[in-house]
């Protein structure tokens, strides 16, 4: 089957790119241009016509990539035309008339590249991350994974385990033969080293995932303290409704921000107070859950009544900044107990000290994102496979010490399988759908 899709962004643009991959790619180009296929990898200007009537659709550039030297590993072509919706739809309609041609599914081009051995799963995922990156740090991380250091590391660890299992299986196949003492020591040393390396990778404070998904900041506090106003100020737009009526925000309102290149998901939550309203009570419950899962909490209180009892006091214990708002209404000094806390006294109304608050947030982001590791876990899938690999290796070491080689070998096979599933070295059909469905159509 031959697939095709618009690979550039939808909507009106100067140039649009339609990508075609599969055995009928050459036929499609010949029918559209009434000419032979252009020279490989050379931009060639051609008139593109209606297949049945030869009516001109547009004039554009065709680039021909014969397989296997193409992105997908199949015969592939790119048609660069003017980015008009009418031109794109007309060309797609003509391509659909060719037998065995259909519109591509999300991520299908990259899925073909993986299946044809052009890339591994880690690189495929990093391509998706690069396309969706919104900040510089996200782009740099995606490029780092694309360069293959993580793939090489996981491959190296897997090869190490494969060598170990060859010794263990030799003992199983020839039970009468004793494994030399130096080989037994080598098995234990190499498997222990591999387990330590995996544990070191897992002990990463989830930096890779935070960079990819965004640093979570929850704005929490009592009603009418200025939480929604703070979200709107930081977002530079009206994200949340602001009102003098207490309890206006009842659900979590989120905004995706770029703070000096760092990706941030800022959440405005329902004001925390005793309420008999069932909907508001659910909103308060959501607020506390959001605060619990946040990487940083901005606890906003009113300068006139900075009550920090109960939940608010608990929220300030870890990864929190106390934001004392409405300082323009303050007629006396702040309570000395508040001054001891990590706080910023601001006035959103007078734009006072808000830059100081932003500076504190940036400092928190910088500290969170500092890492010298080249091997970063960017998805929960990778973490789960590594954790399971570590568990199997622990079991292997325990059984190997007891000379239970048959059962130990099975644990080692399972550990190798878990490492292989990260880069796609084993049958991973069950996870392909979830990975490639996150791609846009045409990639």
The side-by-side strand order for the widest beta sheet comes to: 3-4-5-2-1-6
Which stretches are low in confidence, meaning pLDDT under 50 for 5 or more residues running?
A: 243-248
Helix/strand/pairing category: alpha/beta
Described by strand count, sense and barrel closure, the largest sheet is: 6 strands, mixed
The CATH C-level class name of the largest domain: Alpha Beta
User: Which bin fits the share of residues in helices?
Assistant: 40-55%
Rg result: 29 Å
Instruction: Write down the domain tally.
Output: 3
Alpha-carbon distance between the termini? 17 Å
Using DSSP, what is the number of strands? 12
**Can you tell me the CATH topology of the largest domain?**
Rossmann fold
Summarize the structure.
Helix content is 46%, strand content 17%. The chain is α/β, with parallel strands linked by helices. The protein folds into three domains: 2-104, Probable tRNA modification gtpase trme, domain 1 (Gyrase A, domain 2); 124-204 and 377-436, Four Helix Bundle (Hemerythrin (Met), subunit A); 222-369, Rossmann fold (3-Layer(aba) Sandwich), CATH 3.40.50.300.
């Amino acid at each position: 089957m031959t697939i095709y899709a618009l690979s550039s962004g939808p909507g009106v643009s100067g140039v649009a790119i339609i990508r075609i991959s599969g055995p009928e790619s050459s036929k499609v180009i010949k029918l559209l241009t009434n000419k032979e296929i252009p020279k490989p990898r050379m931009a060639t200007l051609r008139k593109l016509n209606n297949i049945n009537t030869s009516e001109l659709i547009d004039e554009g550039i065709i680039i021909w990539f014969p397989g296997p030297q193409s992105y997908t590993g199949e015969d592939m072509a790119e048609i660069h035309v003017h980015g008009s919706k009418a031109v794109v739809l007309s060309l797609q309609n003509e391509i659909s008339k060719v037998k065995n041609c259909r519109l591509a599914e999300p991520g299908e081009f990259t899925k073909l590249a993986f299946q044809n051995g052009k890339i591994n799963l880690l690189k495929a995922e990093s391509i998706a991350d690069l396309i969706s990156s919104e900040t510089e740090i996200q782009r740099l991380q995606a490029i780092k994974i694309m360069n293959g250091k993580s793939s090489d590391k996981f491959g190296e660890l897997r090869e190490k385990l494969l060598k170990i299992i060859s010794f263990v299986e030799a003992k199983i196949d020839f039970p009468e033969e004793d494994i030399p003492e130096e080989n037994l020591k080598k098995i234990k040393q190499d498997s222990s080293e591999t387990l330590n390396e995996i544990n070191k990778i897992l002990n990463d404070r989830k930096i890779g995932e935070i960079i990819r998904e965004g640093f979570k900041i929850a704005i929490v506090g009592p009603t009418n303290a200025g939480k929604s106003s703070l979200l709107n100020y930081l977002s530079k737009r009206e994200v949340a409704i602001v009102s003098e009526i207490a309890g206006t925000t009842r659900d979590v309102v989120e905004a995706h921000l770029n703070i000096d290149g760092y990706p941030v998901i800022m959440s405005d939550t329902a004001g925390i107070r005793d309420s008999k309203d069932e909907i508001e009570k659910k909103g308060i419950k959501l607020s506390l859950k959001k605060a619990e899962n946040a990487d940083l909490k901005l606890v906003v209180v009113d300068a006139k009544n900075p009550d920090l009892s109960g939940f608010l006091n608990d929220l300030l214990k870890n990864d929190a900044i106390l934001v004392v708002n409405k300082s323009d209404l303050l007629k006396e000094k702040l309570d000395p107990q508040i001054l001891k806390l990590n706080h910023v006294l601001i006035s959103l109304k007078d734009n006072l000290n808000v830059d100081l608050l932003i500076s504190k947030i940036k400092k928190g982001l910088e500290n969170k994102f500092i890492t010298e590791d080249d091997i970063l876990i960017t998805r929960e899938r990778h973490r789960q496979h590594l954790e399971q690999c570590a568990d199997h290796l622990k079991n292997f070491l325990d059984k190997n010490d007891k000379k239970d080689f048959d059962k130990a070998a099975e644990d080692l096979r399972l550990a190798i399988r878990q490492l292989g599933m990260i880069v796609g070295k084993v049958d991973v059909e069950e996870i392909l759908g979830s990975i490639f469905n996150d791609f846009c159509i045409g990639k």
